[in-house]
Here is the input.
Amino acid sequence: MFGLGKKDTTVFVVVIILALCAPFILNPFPGNSSLAQFNAGYPDLMQRFVIFGIFAIGFNLLFGLTGYLSFGHAAFLGAGSYAAVWMFKLLSMNVIPAILLSMIVAGLFAVVIGYVSLRRSGIYFSILTLAFAQMSYNLAYSVLTPITNGETGLQITLDDPRILGSSATADGGIPVTNLFGLEMRHFTTVDIGAWSFNFSVGYYLCAAIMILAFYVAVRIFRSPFGMMLRAIKSNQQRLYYTGLNARPYTLAVFVISGMYAGLAGGLLASMDPLAGPERMQWTASGEVVLMTILGGAGTLIGPVLGAGFIKYFENIFSKINDGVLHSWFAFLPDGLENFIVTLVHPFVGKGWHLTLGLMFMLVVIFLPGGLVEGGQRIARALRRGKSEDNGAANKASHEPAE
Amino acid sequence: MSKSTLTRRGVLRTGAVAGAGVALPTIFTSSAASAFTNEPTGGTVTLGFNVPQTGPYADEGADELRAFELAVEHLNGGGDGGMINTFSSKTLDGTGILGKKVEYVTGDTQTKSDAARASAKSMIEKDGAVMISGGSSSGVAVAVQGLCQEAGVIFMAGLTHSNDTTGKDKKANGFRHFFNAYMSAAALAPVLSKMYGNDRKAYHLTADYTWGWTQQESIQAATEALGWETVNNVLTPLAQTDFSSYIAPVLNSGADVLVLNHYGGNMVNSLTNAVQFGLRDKQVNGKNFEIVVPLYSRLMARGAGENVKGIFGSTNWHWSLQDEGSKAFVKSFGTKYGFPPSQAAHTCYVQTLLYADAVQRAGSFNPCEVGAALEGFEFDGLGNGPTLYRADDHQCFKDVLVVRGKENPESEFDLLEVVEVTPRAQVEYAPDHPMFSGGNLGSCNPGA
Here is the structure.
């Protein structure tokens, strides 16, 4: 379907289903239960899941296919965000021009940075991209304050010109980002029994774009261009000896990857019109590397899973405070309760980094292929059990009958 | 051939699924029935406390959180009631807010605008918070205030001292009890003139974000009005931890006063570096070299230790004040946590009470009605003397304290002494003062 192979179609359909049903999947616990703390189905976090999914998909195109580890991808995310917010300030609150401009700006950025950085490979390439990203961060933080508003971050205000829109709404508020009048922040809550599910306009726009971005990524993976990129990863020297110049290919994929990051940045700004320099900081660049490796570098769905995993930890685990812990362990005798809370305390709340670090170590040590490898192992184990049961040949695929 | 038929059917089927999925959100476009964002319907009301738990302002954040917990306890009738008993408005009776029990959620701003907004968004969207409070970094406060305006909830700013919070970035849904950079400068200038004379050369080190800029601008204007000369102003990144490379050039600049427009961990480090470089023992232009820290807090004084002795600054509130409100607050905070509260804790506690009181008086949680109840509200008994919430910019006006690092502290908390209480009239300014112009409150947004 859509020019995809059987296996890719399955993955694609799974991604579509996951993306469209996320409001249900992410809110598995009833609102009044104590486990509601772990629900992630609110618009802001769902939007972050798919937006960082796009970011990681793009990063994986570069890292997964060519093996070039860019440590400065956040620069494109940040550049995209600034471009989008400026579009909201100057042109209109419609997200389409903002997203387009963010991709273009990030693409141009990527051409410049890629042209210089790709003259080296391996660790030198990583350091060069890191240096460019930190340079962008510092520029955005102080030197370019008139454009970026420094540490406070660029925000939309009541006195922006907005040529194709209004500076302020009729009742004196700041207009909100929209898609031809459909407000991004609008969401509807549907209550079914004790559960309540949030359907957000902004989320579905992001999800639709993520599905599109995923599809394009699959096509690139399976194209002759993708094959060439893999060749670069396996042995660049040999490629040169056969008379092929690898650099145009690496630059092309670097720019595509940068545009994905710009798209993610533009979407972030569309959902919440603010762009701060910390989006460009090296920690943000490191985060996307973690996402990709955690999910499974070079796999199709891995980066999306990794992005979801990290954002979940950042937003859900960081909110568990001592009060919440005490309410969980309230059934224990006082001394034991306090002891357990003290024991758990360093791993939740502001200690979420620690938990994430431990998980990352475990994944890298035991599942070098990331979460995807974990899934494959489970699937293999199940399949083995099944094939022993009915003795059939390995007719494994449970794809829909396409 | 059959393969292509299957593909076509698949295309249609997937198209239908995708179409239905995309159409899904538009089916439910009818708005929810509530009149404003997160209208509390059950027996509880949720407040969101968004403070820095990591980063350079983590100490302040931790103390703010303690104050919020204490305020919630007092609102729900626990503890000794604290400042509820001394507050001039008598609507709070320990039965929560409008009879609803107060619950709260917390979040970590990481002293980053992005993270702070994500955290505040999750409080509003997931936990149903009807008011967001917190801060400790004006950049974050400005960003979160903007978010609250868009989302239609009240933002009760915590520790934020930039002129911009109630100046060019002011918002109808945002309110600030804390004083600001202009007030600090206005209060500090006469004392500096008295102590150090009118012929001084000042060198500024400034935290590079909205607070630092406005603090530096204010203190420069106030000292230049005295006759001081400004030699240089150097911007330092907020995340900086070692300031030696910024201190060294001060020695050769010909300046005889160093103004540290730093707060929290920044100030602790820069002051320590400055003292290590021997700045305080130097004689320049025939005068003793002096250091000034415009915005002071006890937590910073504790962090900087011996180095703060004799150094002037301003503060919003100090635990050694002897009015009834301050005494009641210090007592209940001390009983619960074993040490006196900081100014950050004080302003957060007060903001929570002010919000609760405004809701009681308005008879509704609707942000527009709460805002109207706060605008132009005059009150007393919360530790700062008679105070006004000005309607024009949602800024509180009250006395400002000028403090000095104590030479002979009697305890580990007794680090600052109040030199002068600058009366409110001396720090007041017009709403359209140039340092505060360019902004617009807009209209209040109840969301939904």
The two ends of chain B are 54 Å apart (CA to CA). Chain B touches chain A through 57 residues (CB under 8 Å). The longest helix of chain B spans residues 2-27. The CA atoms of residues 209 and 437 of chain B lie 18 Å apart.
